[in-house]
Design a protein that fits this description.
alpha/beta, Udp-n-acetylmuramoylalanyl-d-glutamate--2,6- Diaminopimelate Ligase, Chain: A, domain 1, UDP-N-acetylmuramoyl-L-alanine:D-glutamate ligase, Protein-Tyrosine Phosphatase, Chain A, 3 domains, eleven-stranded mixed β-sheet, six-stranded mixed β-sheet, 16 helices
Length: about 500
């Protein structure tokens, strides 16, 4: 693609050099640059791409997008912009031919529930006969290829490339998690969403957004993008949890079709006659296309909200309740979410990805409702995250648990013991018994050894993850594997 065409939609401040160059690729990491590439210099949290310009040129970059004024480079075209992250996203859309305009794209945002909803939607759409791709925290699924994911929402250049692959494989839909981080950093800039889903919001991720107002503003960007669609043939829908405290913020910024879902308030899609036990749940759902009973192979009122979001979205696409019910009855959950492990033990083990106080509160409250004996919780908080929530997490765990094993969960550059001690402050407020074991394998072993008949052991925080990240090393770790090895004597 000619450089002149590639930068058509960029808001440029200065251009130095030839725009008649043939660009063979775009990237923001100098290590991935090849001959004929455009190198886009991004100032990140750790590294500044402007410091790697010479490396990129040596690898074959013929043009640069920069934010800073830099000295001329002989034979290299330099394009200066205000926001190189946005420039990366806009250029990526142009380079890959705006793939999101060639399929139906559904984005899910919220503090919790995103992963489960995307998997539910994929199950429903496939039941209806649609080819459906999925992008999210646990996996990226493109056709028959299932790959583990490294982040909730991938960088814009990788996202557009992946969406193009979905188009080439004739996918009808793509369902994706859209994190506040991605919205803040323009990763989904230029994506033409057909449906935006709001699940819930709590006071998290302040290590990125600094305060709740900024966090809320970032989330709303997904819904504001619906108002700028280039698609003419499809109706747009905002699907919003009406029971959430901040639902009005999302409704007020919406100018497309609105579908609400909920349990407590009047809603377009509403659950009634809810039945739950520790292993599964069911409810009657009312929809504009009629009602039906929904069966879920897992428990939790929050999972009923996840199902309602999926039902509302499917209804917006003209899928009838009977198809939805059939699909959900065969759905056994997203990877690492509310997974019960059975190895012949006389107590219950639950693995779950819950890693913030809102998610922990949801699953622990549900387990508490059905507990006949003790709840033992194994939990640690990730390093390099907003540390002021750790005491709150400790309080939430202490409120619903009878015994707590505080451990490590990707401590990264932080001291695992210091993270544990911050969680400990909250646990102490509840006067519950606890122990700190920063080695996660030993922590799980201890919790299982302490469990007695009828107890529930919740191992929270990592879900399907396969690694533990320290400041100087990454080791293989999967909670389910650890449990299996302990209980089968390996």
């Amino acid at each position: 693609m000619k450089l002149s065409e590639l930068i058509t939609n960029l808001d440029t401040k200065e251009i130095i050099g030839d725009l008649d160059l043939n660009i063979k690729g775009i990237y923001h990491n100098s290590r991935e640059i090849k001959r004929g590439f455009l190198f886009i210099c991004i100032k990140g949290f750790t590294f500044d791409g402007h410091n790697f310009i010479d490396e990129a040129i040596n690898k074959g970059a013929v043009a640069l997008v920069v934010e800073k004024e830099i000295p001329p480079r002989p034979g290299i075209t330099i394009i200066r912009v205000d926001d190189s992250r946005k420039a990366l996203a806009i250029s990526a859309n142009q380079f890959y031919g705006f793939p999101s305009r060639k399929l139906k794209l559904i984005g899910v945002t919220g503090t919790n529930g995103k992963t489960t909803i995307t998997y539910m939607l994929r199950a429903i759409f496939q039941e209806e006969g649609y080819r459906t791709g999925l992008l999210g925290t646990a996996q990226n699924i493109i056709g028959d290829n299932i790959n583990s994911s490294k982040m909730t929402t991938m960088e814009s250049i990788d996202l557009q490339k992946t969406l193009k692959e979905m188009v080439e494989q004739k996918n009808d839909y793509a369902v994706m998690e859209v994190s506040s981080h991605a919205l803040q950093l323009s990763r989904v800039e230029g994506c033409d969403f057909d449906v935006a889903i709001f699940t819930n919001i709590s006071k998290e991720h302040f290590e990125i957004h600094k305060n709740f107002s900024n966090y809320l503003t970032a989330k709303k960007k997904l819904f504001l993008s619906l108002n700028k669609s280039k698609k003419k043939d499809y109706e747009k829908f905002a699907v919003i949890n009406i029971d959430e405290e901040h639902s009005k913020d999302f409704i007020d910024c919406n100018k497309v079709n609105l579908i609400t879902y909920g349990i407590e308030k009047e809603a377009d899609i509403r659950a009634r006659k809810i039945r739950m036990n520790l292993k599964d749940s069911s409810f009657m759902v009312e929809t504009p296309l009629g009602g039906t009973r929904i069966y879920l192979n897992f428990s939790g009122i929050y999972n009923i909200y996840n199902a309602l979001a999926s039902i509302a979205t499917a209804i917006s696409q003209g899928i009838f309740p009977g198809v939805i019910s059939q699909a959900l009855s065969k759905f056994y959950g997203a990877p690492g979410r509310y997974k019960l492990l059975e190895y012949g033990q006389n107590y219950t083990i639950v693995i779950d990805f819950a890693h913030n106080y809102h998610g922990l509160g949801n699953i622990l409250e549900n387990l508490h409702n059905f507990a006949s004996h003790k709840i033992i919780t194994v939990f640690g908080h990730g390093g390099e995250k907003y540390n002021k929530v750790r005491t709150t997490m400790g309080e939430v765990i202490g409120k619903y648990s009878d015994y707590i094993v505080i451990t490590a969960d990707n401590p990264k550059s932080e001291d695992p013991m210091e993270i544990a001690q911050e969680i400990e402050k909250g646990v102490k407020k509840t006067d519950k018994d606890y122990i700190i074991i920063t080695d996660r394998v030993k922590a799980i072993h201890y919790a299982l050894g302490k469990a007695e008949e009828g107890d529930i052991v919740l191992i929270a925080g990592k879900g399907p993850e396969n690694e533990q990240i320290y400041h100087n090393r990454v080791i293989h770790h999967n909670d389910e594997e650890v449990v299996k090895n302990i209980l089968t004597g390996r």
